[in-house]
Amino acid sequence: MTEAEHKMWLGAEPPKDFTMEETVFDESENGMTRDWRNQMNSVKNQGGCGSCWAFSATAGTEHAHYRAARQRLNLSEQQLVDCDRRSHGCSGGWYFYAWEHLR
User: Fold this and answer.
1) DSSP state of 33
2) What is the SS3 string spanning 16-31?
3) How many distinct structural domains can be found in the chain?
4) Tell me, what's the pLDDT at 31?
5) Cβ-contact 97, 87 below 8 angstroms
6) Can you tell me the distance from the alpha carbon of 94 to that of 51, in angstroms, rounded to the nearest whole number?
7) Closest by alpha carbon to 56, among 20, 31, 81, 85?
8) Is 49 exposed, middle or buried (0-12, 13-18, 19+ CB in 10 A)?
9) Mean per-residue pLDDT for 37-66?
10) Cα dihedral sign, 8-84-77-62
11) What is the pLDDT, as a whole number, of residue 3?
């Protein structure tokens, strides 16, 4: 594998203009003491598509929604792969661009 090929697969870096707000966790509800297996959606499979960014975005959003509303969501990774124009479909992307698209 050439250096360029290696960087393409393993050298992902966020865009230079990316900033993220600090996340503050409420430790009054310790997630380590809860069994989430029966409260969340089952594990999904991205297959051969390089869409881990979409799965990351939907899983995080589904989980946050469940914690806030105690209601399950089952969001579509395929919708992000097809419609998020800042990411690159099955060729990769960023969960934070997907979150911007979901707004």
Assistant:
1) G
2) CCCCCCCCCCCCCCCH
3) 1
4) 53
5) yes
6) 9
7) 81
8) middle
9) 89
10) positive
11) 77
Beta bridge partners of 50: 91
As given in the structure block, the two tokens for residue 95 are: 């969960």
- Which tokens go with 77? 């990774």
Structural domain range at position 59: 48-103
pLDDT at 30 > cutoff 60: no
Given a contact cutoff of 8 angstroms between Cβ atoms, the answer to whether 50 and 92 are in contact is: yes
Lookup: tokens for 80 = 């992000």
Q: What is the DSSP letter of 34?
A: S
Of 60, 57, 62, the closest CA to residue 92 belongs to 57
Please say whether the beta carbons of 80 and 101 come within 8 A: yes
> Structure tokens of 49?
């598509």
- Note whether residue 55 is domain-resident: yes
- What DSSP string runs through 14-79? --TT---PPP---TTS-GGGS--TTTSPPP---TTSB-HHHHHHHHHHHHHHHHHHS------HHH
Whether pLDDT at 36 is above 70: no
